[in-house]
Amino acid sequence: MKNKVMKKWNWSILTFGVLCWLWVFCSSDTIFAKTPDTQFQNDVMNAYADAMLEGEMRGFESLMSETSENELFFKYLQWRYAAMEILEDGYDAYSYEITDVTNVSDTEIKIEFNEYFHYANIDFQGFSMGLVLDIKVDEGCIQSISVQNDDCFDAFMNNLSFKGRSAGIEKEEDQIDLQMLIEDIRILKSEMDSVCSSQTARLEQDETENWARATAYSYSASRGAEYAKKYAKDANSSFYAASADCTNFVSQCIWAAYGGWNSSMSTTKMTSNISNKVRMVSGSWYAGSGGGSSNWESVNNLWSYATSNSGNGPKAKGYNNGGKYTGIQPIDISVGDVLQVSGNGKSYTHSVYVIGTPGGSNPSYGEIVVAQHSSNKTRTLSNLLLSYNYMRQMRFQSGKFAS
């Protein structure tokens, strides 16, 4: 009789223990992450899209708590839209695609998305890939929000820091920050207009250079731009992807312009050209699926190599090295050019490929479109120059290759 009672008691303990374990297991956020609220994500993204397209902030007001971090984000949106208006660089269409949502914790989510837009003043479709909204939430309200992988947000924060202001802007003396930054953009636009009004042609250009650029077989700027448009959004998987991919991508565009690729080429043929280093230079300027040379992927090495090359490989004339961007007039920028930018005129950190110019006798920076990686996007040159004060230019000529 005693054994039957003990057995029944042991089973009761075991059953109770299992039920407790299941309760703890099923309620643990570390085991089962809470599913993000889809409606909340869409509300945030729709509010962001309205801000980019219309400069409309009201979509965020019902989603946000009154915090200094959120006030800073509002300032960013206002600065971003003011910049687009001043530079005549806004959009007349904007859409987004959510690609991933990550629950970092109970109070933080990250929404990764791609954005697609059409410039209001240029008939050109642009995009940015892999942007991330980092959002901290409490009781359904946003406590802070920031934009990762976005050059404009980084430029805003860097400019704010450069002005010697603190991150928090609840202090009375910090209320002038936004107007100061907007005034900086007005000065930038004034400088751009001054440069654009001058029609002086570059003295270094000569008939030989013009002939070289017009020779499609030597360096086809249009083919380079075609490649850039095709792979600006989604990287060419036949090449490796560098951690800082901007110059790797630009070198691919140069390689295509020299004849390593064309739009009718099959993937098999393209892969064969890459493997056999067609329109590359073994040991100097090359890349493949496993990596590339320093002259191929480094901002400063590509400049030094291409502008001084006297042997086989890409050849370019370099302009305005160490000079402010105003040293390069928009009228002197052409499709197929490579532009490199710097914050101080000494260390150049980013390369882009020119894919669109308006033509005419008096173009502006806002009408020139460039393609880039890190992050993958197309953008106007005026948008790029929000983040940089110095710019140099490479214009490519015919080059010799062993294959």
How are the secondary structure elements laid out?
Elements: H1 2-27, H2 38-54, H3 58-61, H4 68-86, E1 91-105, E2 108-119, E3 125-138, E4 141-148, H5 151-162, H6 177-196, H7 207-214, H8 221-231, H9 246-260, H10 267-275, E5 287-288, E6 291-292, H11 294-297, H12 299-308, E7 313-319, E8 338-342, E9 348-356, E10 369-372, E11 377-380, H13 381-384, E12 390-400
Antiparallel strand pairs: 1-2, 2-3, 3-4, 5-6, 7-12, 8-9, 8-12, 9-10, 10-11
Helix pairs in contact: 2-4, 4-6, 8-9
General description of the model:
- The protein is an alpha+beta fold and 403 residues long.
- It contains 13 helices and twelve strands.
- The strands form three sheets. The protein has a six-stranded antiparallel beta sheet, with helices on both faces. A four-stranded antiparallel beta sheet has the order 1-2-3-4. It has a two-stranded antiparallel ribbon with strand order 5-6.
- The longest helix is centred in the first third of the chain and has 26 residues, at 2-27.
The 3D shape can be described as: globular
How are the strands of the biggest sheet laid out side by side? 7-12-8-9-10-11
Class computed from helices, strands and strand pairing: alpha+beta
Q: How much helix, percentage-wise, in residues?
A: 25-40%
SSE series: HHHHEEEEHHHHHHEEHHEEEEEHE
Q: Give the biggest sheet.
A: 6 strands, antiparallel
Strand content: 15-25%
Total of DSSP H or I helical runs spanning 4+ residues: 13
> Low-confidence segments, ≥5 residues, pLDDT <50?
1-9, 21-36, 165-170, 199-217
Overall pLDDT score: 84
Q: From the alpha-carbon coordinates, what is the Rg to the nearest angstrom?
A: 27 Å
* Total number of beta strands: 12
Head-to-tail CA distance between termini:
95 Å
